[in-house]
């Protein structure tokens, strides 16, 4: 196991998830007094694991057809477009 890759992926995903709509939805579920916090934690964890598994599988398949460097460019452009859209929509 490449620990450098592990820490880079962990740090990137952790920072990306902070304050996003998924975390906010989890906060809302956990704020209900009648809900088990363990159940909310397990449900949110399983959802993140499944969505990550889908992303890893998709990345593996796509990388056979598209150079990973171009995938990085596409992902970067996507983040910039989403950022601009968010700023415009807020104004």
Order of helices and strands: HHHH
Query: How far apart are the termini?
Result: 45 Å
Largest sheet: none
Radius of gyration: 17 Å
Task: Tell me roughly what share of residues is in helical segments.
Answer: over 70%
Which structural class do the helices and strands define? mainly alpha
> Uncertain runs with pLDDT below 50, 5 residues or more?
none
Spatial shape: extended
Strand content: under 5%
Total count of strands: 0
Whole-number mean pLDDT:
91
- The total of helices stands at 4
Explain what the structure shows.
The structure is a single chain. With 91 residues, the protein is mostly helical. Helix content is 81%, strand content 0%. The protein is built from four helices and no strands. It has helices spanning 3-17, 21-30, 37-62, 68-90. Helix 2 packs antiparallel against helix 3. The longest helix is centred in the middle third of the chain and has 26 residues, at 37-62. It is extended and about 50 Å long. The chain starts with a helix and ends with a helix. The mean pLDDT is 91.
List the main descriptive attributes of the protein structure presented here:
4 helices, 91 residues, mainly alpha, single chain
Write the layout of secondary structure elements.
Blueprint: H1 3-17, H2 21-30, H3 37-62, H4 68-90
Helix pairs in contact: 2-3
């Amino acid at each position: 196991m490449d620990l450098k890759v592990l820490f880079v992926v962990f740090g990137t995903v952790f920072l990306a998830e902070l304050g996003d709509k998924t975390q906010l939805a989890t906060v809302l579920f956990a704020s209900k007094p009648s809900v088990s916090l363990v159940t909310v934690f397990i449900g949110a964890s399983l959802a993140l694991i499944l969505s990550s598994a889908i992303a890893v599988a998709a990345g593996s398949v796509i990388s056979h057809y598209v150079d990973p460097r171009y995938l990085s460019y596409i992902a970067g452009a996507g983040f910039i477009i989403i950022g601009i859209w968010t700023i415009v929509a807020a104004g």
